[in-house]
Amino acid sequence: MVVRGSGPEDLPPKSLVIVFSYHHGNTEKIARAIGGVLGAGVKAPQEIRPEEIAGYDLVGFGSGIYSATFDPSVLTLADRLPQSQGTKAFLFSTYGAPGFIANREFIEKNHDEMRQKLQARGYTVIGDFGCAGWNTNSFLKYFGGLNKSRPDAGDLRNAEAFARAMMEKVR
Ligand SMILES: Cc1cc2nc3c(=O)[nH]c(=O)nc-3n(C[C@H](O)[C@H](O)[C@H](O)COP(=O)(O)O)c2cc1C
């Protein structure tokens, strides 16, 4: 008798979430929401050796957006990855730009450098997530910053839904 729902195909993908987040811990909040859904550990780039990443089915790479791209620690990690045969990856970030600027194209543009590095290492990037994050960079601190209280509960729910979609794509 075949018992449905108990085979190895029903196991969640072995997943890992890597994040760099220093400004207000905004992107780490997203990483933890995603990690919770995936049952994945959340690590900083400095906490993982590039060779270890080969053992995962699904890897999320996240960063606050600084000067329109990921932090150098995440970009450098991508450069040091061993060549892969299509390991699935997704990208996530929080940005400080105001809402009227930040559309899907803006999010994907911020992810471009990281996406290209992963693709050069043989990874398949299956999704992008971005949301606003509190930004007090530079002169903004004198005005209370932009996107105060973001990410908020709605952003975290969206991040969880994104994580479920990523899991479904890998299954
Ligand atoms: C040095 C620095 C540069 C930034 N550059 C950008 C930028 O180019 N575009 C943008 O939308 N936000 C920018 N921001 C805002 C951050 O992306 C935003 O606050 C983000 O949520 C920070 O994430 P974190 O708290 O995880 O570090 C910058 C913030 C800092 C501190």
What does this structure look like?
- The chain has one domain (15-170): Flavodoxin domain (Rossmann fold).
- It has helices at 26-38, 72-79, 104-120, 153-170; strands at 15-20, 41-43, 58-64, 88-95, 124-132.
- Helix 1 (26-38) crosses helix 4.
- 33% of the residues lie in helices and 19% in strands.
- It is built from 4 helices and 5 strands.
- A 5-stranded parallel sheet has the order 2-1-3-4-5, sandwiched between helices.
- The chain is of the alpha/beta class.
- The structure holds flavin mononucleotide.
End-to-end distance: 23 Å
Rg of Cα set:
16 Å
The main pleated sheet reads as: 5 strands, parallel
Please trace the helix and strand order, writing H or E for each element.
EHEEHEHEH
At the first level of CATH, what is the class?
A: Alpha Beta
Oligomeric description of these chains: single chain
Task: Give the beta-strand count.
Answer: 5
Give the CATH superfamily.
Flavodoxin domain
Looking at CATH, which topology would you report? Rossmann fold
**Unreliably modeled segments:** 1-6
Which ligands accompany this protein?
Answer: flavin mononucleotide
| Helix-and-strand structural type | alpha/beta
Proper CATH architecture = 3-Layer(aba) Sandwich
User: Strand order across the biggest sheet?
Assistant: 2-1-3-4-5
Shape: globular
Helix content: 25-40%
Number of domains: 1
Which range does the strand content fall in? 15-25%
Give the helix tally. 4
